[in-house]
Write a structure and sequence with these properties.
five-stranded antiparallel sheet, 39% helix, 5 strands, Nuclear Transport Factor 2, Chain: A
């Protein structure tokens, strides 16, 4: 009689399970139970270090700063990848997409550029990928932040096959405007 592969696996599993149960019972029965000691032990004196408790307000402020720093990091990442990616075929869609992430001043300057800019007839494209976002300065009271965003950029000139890879850093200055973090300055290095 030939057993199916599934039946064989089930029998092996059951055999291992039975062996494990028997082994557990053997181990439990060979080690004697420890009886409770009737000796009176001296109480140990434990000296505890004083714990510095932060106030609830300090805790909330620290949590808010972490959330704000996370928002700055996330905005820097999103903005850089979109702002730094361009194609002559997209007619500056990358800049139009990030206008909402810019301060009113920076958005107005960018819109002025868009109104006068013309795409080249020669094919050009660059795709930007963020490698690292580093917060250089973060001032919660002044509502300002500066980040350095390391990127890898793939450029194509003339044809898609004519590609080169460059590494660039984008420095961003962010400010709190209209209830959210926005980019006020973006400079490639």
């Amino acid at each position: 009689m030939s057993l199916s592969l599934r039946t064989k696996r089930l029998l092996i599993f059951l055999a291992i399970l039975i062996i494990a149960i028997l082994l557990s019972l053997f181990i439990i029965s060979t080690f004697p139970k420890q009886e409770k000691s009737t000796e009176i032990k001296q109480e140990e004196t434990i000296i505890q270090q004083p714990v510095v408790q932060e106030s609830e307000e300090e805790h909330i402020q620290r949590e808010q700063q972490l959330v704000s720093e996370s928002a700055v990091r996330s905005l820097s990442d999103t903005f850089t990848e979109r702002y730094g990616s361009y194609s002559t075929e997209s007619d500056f869609a990358n800049l139009r997409d990030v206008l909402v992430l810019m301060t009113d001043r920076f958005a107005a300057d960018t819109q002025n550029y868009l109104d006068s800019a013309k795409s080249s007839d020669d094919y050009y494209a660059v795709t930007t990928q963020v490698l690292n976002v580093k917060i250089l300065d973060f001032d919660e009271e002044a509502k300002t932040a500066t980040t350095s965003v390391s990127t890898q950029r793939q450029e194509s000139r003339g044809t898609i096959q004519d590609m080169s890879v460059i590494y660039q850093t984008l420095f961003l200055e962010l400010i709190w405007e209209q209830g959210m973090w926005k980019v006020d300055v973006a400079e490639w290095q």
